[in-house]
Design goal:
9% strand; efflux transmembrane transporter activity; alpha+beta; MdtP/NodT-like; signal; TolC family protein; Outer membrane efflux proteins (OEP); two-stranded parallel sheet; OMP_efflux; four-stranded antiparallel sheet
């Protein structure tokens, strides 16, 4: 799975000096007292999520059913009385005939083996579904982790916007005091400072909600971490699409298809075995009360026309097996389309994020620094100064969105293929 951490922006020295006040703003702790990595979040979820814990009881149920399926046909003990409590010579028990017998069934057609095969197939399907469920949970952990981390990075941008608004207010106030700008610009700067604070408060609230949503995946009722650790710009080359799609055949999702097909085949074999006629047998001892003699009794029985009665069950099992094949084909087509869309989205998003980070942001940072200097000298208007700030802040938010969208697509690729797309060298944090 992916490893992602916070965003670090590169800024000119003088702009960094302006933004040093970010760390002093109330409510923002840049020190990670309790950091959380994606690997830790994934392990907690696998260990504690109730959706996986339920499989323990499911396996117990299926194992018990397997033991039942392996049992031989039950043997019955019967006691039968004839010529009892009649009339005339048959009154009372003097003429009674008592029979004590054992009876059971001889199964033909390998029914016991077929029943055990069905039980084994259900156990294998449950295990494949457990693995697929675990993979889905890890995918959900990764998505929530990336979404939360993107908000964490946006909170840093919001704090920077608040710091820039405070700096703007101070610059405008000094310029107004020197008579270089109307007093209305101070009021506008003050309003912008208030709006920046509101935007930051909104992101803080959304970040708190996403942290809780992430923590609920391992059953926590509150976020037991302060900050996520990773790198939003840890991109890798996914390679061509076709080799990536070939990995799908080894994924837990495809294993579920295979196990479901084997289960339907085992059910079909059981239906065919049941179409074979079983032989019932009985053996016992009969006592004649009027003479005191005893005699052995034997009997066999077999149902008539049972093959015709079982034809419907066999046809239903064949139809169920065929449906699995067609559903697998349809699901594979859908899976291929989703994987291709994620592959394209990751390539485009990662390229855009790198371009924005390496080319667009440095240019806008230099433009902001130059605009600030020109505004202080009276060459640019307040509107120019504000526009330069917004351009930089909007570009940073766009960069975060591009990086997080790319990583979300990468997480989807890993979930669909069941493997890591690539294994980049770990950073010092990781």
């Amino acid at each position: 799975m992916l490893f992602v951490t916070s965003t670090r922006w590169r800024a000119p020295v003088r702009l960094r000096a302006i933004l040093l006040c970010v760390a002093a703003l109330p409510g923002l702790s840049l020190a990670a007292d309790r950091p959380l990595t994606l690997a830790e979040a994934g392990q907690r979820t696998i260990d504690q999520n109730p959706r996986l814990a339920v499989f323990k009881w499911r396996f117990g149920e299926l194992q018990a059913r397997r033991e039942t399926a392996a049992l031989r046909p039950q043997t019955a003990l019967s006691l039968e009385a004839e010529n009892v409590a009649g009339s005339g010579a048959q009154s009372g028990f003097e003429s009674a005939e008592l029979t004590l017998a054992l009876s059971s069934v001889i199964e033909l057609g390998g029914k016991a083996t077929a029943r055990v095969a069905v039980a084994d197939a259900r156990l294998a399907l449950a295990e494949a579904r457990r693995q697929a469920q675990a993979l889905d949970l890890l995918g959900e952990v990764t998505r929530r982790f990336i979404t939360t981390q993107a908000l964490q990075a946006k909170l840093e941008v919001a704090a920077e916007a608040q710091a820039l608004a405070a700096t703007s207010h101070e610059l405008v106030r000094l310029r107004v005091e020197r008579g270089g700008a109307p007093e209305a610009e101070v009021l506008r700067a003050r309003a912008e400072q208030a709006r920046a604070g509101l935007r930051r408060d909104a992101i803080e609230a959304e970040l708190a909600s996403e942290k809780l949503a992430l923590a609920t995946l391992w059953g926590a009722d509150a976020a037991d971490f302060d900050r996520l650790r990773g790198n939003l710009f840890e991109f890798t080359d996914p390679g061509p699409f076709e080799p990536l799609y070939e990995r799908v055949s080894r994924s837990p999702t495809i294993r579920v298809f295979g196990e479901r097909r084997r289960l339907r085949q085992a059910e079909l074999d059981l239906a065919r075995a049941r179409s074979r006629q079983d032989i019932g047998w009985s053996a016992g001892v009969r006592r004649f009360e009027d003479s005191g003699d005893t005699a052995m009794t034997f009997g066999i029985s077999t149902p008539l026309f049972s093959r015709r009665r079982s034809e419907g069950e066999v046809q239903a099992a064949m139809a169920a097996r065929s449906m699995v094949d067609y559903r697998e084909q349809a699901d594979l087509l859908e899976l291929r389309a989703r994987l291709y869309d994620a592959w394209q989205g990751y390539r485009q998003g990662s390229a855009a994020a790198v371009k924005l980070r390496d080319d667009v942001l440095p240019a806008l940072e230099r433009a902001l620094e130059q605009t600030r200097e020109a505004y202080q000298r009276g060459r640019y208007s307040y509107r120019d100064w504000i526009d330069a700030q917004r351009d930089l802040l909007d570009a940073r938010l766009t960069t975060i969105d591009a990086a997080s969208n790319a990583l979300l697509n990468l997480a989807l690729m890993e979930q669909l293929t069941g493997t890591a797309v690539a294994n980049p060298p770990p950073s010092a944090d990781e």
